[in-house]
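dumping this here before i forget
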Amino acid sequence: MSTTITVIPGDGIGPDIIDATIKILDKAGCDFTYEFAKAGQTALDATGELLPQETLDAISRNKATLKGPLTTPSGEGFTSVNVTLRKKFDLYANLRPVKSFKGTQSRYENIDIITIRENTEGMYSGIGQTTSEEGDQARAISQITRKGCERILRFAFDLAEREGRKKITVVHKANILKTTSGLFLKIAREIAADYPKIECNEMIVDAVCMRLVMNPEDFDMIVTTNLFGDIISDLCAGLVGGLGMAPGANIGDDSAIFEAVHGSAPDIAGQNLANPTSVILAAIQMLDYLDMPKPARRIRAALEDAIASGDRTTRDLGGTHGTTDFTQAVIDRL
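structure:
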């Protein structure tokens, strides 16, 4: 029986890399039915809304959504579409794995790190954002809750058990942010006690950033709050070749959105230049979420071999080819 997924092509290079990924999913025999929806600048131009109700309904109907990069116009009055989606569907767990690929122009080899980021609270919650009448003072409130901490920490430790991971690093700033980071660290210690087989380390966020650059092999899994996780996950992507090599999953109790984590790159939109790897890897995450491990393994193996051999790779991978050629190189291996 065919599974229906929501597909949001997105803006800029989004439609090109989403189309490439759909071709790969079809070639791998995934038997999906695709319900297409608009969001971001494309939706604003077509409907006057960044996130139309039809798109929200489509996400609600289907368990999984595959999403290209979105553009949120700069300036007042426009809320981030990605943040809105995470809060609307309570997608509290942001899952960002990075893994080294042979053939990439990265500084390190054998990187294999998963960053788990709390996705709905903290500095990105949008609470209490005010600017004084004079415009010379601004304020925002960071709020975290026991519920939010418990569920993201348990999500991380449960994932570590399923994936056979040995070590989790809890990242905080409790030495300065004694209330918010302090609460997160306190609850992390409570949760860690329920998982005695998993080593749990505690590190201050600035020390983590330095250690990731100097000795990234020291890390296995990282779990942290929203703002710190946003920064650390991009740093980790830099260890394996950049955001074009890193996928992202936003997971809740009832639904999930899988996405490219890079921007919409409007300067190369429609020029057949974009590397589709980030969305392909996000689709692999989606297959794992939908309990479809066989096509997930096949697509990853094909992608790894195409990159390692340099077959029709894009410019950021050291090649001279475009999106369609690289996509065909992966399809040929399937």
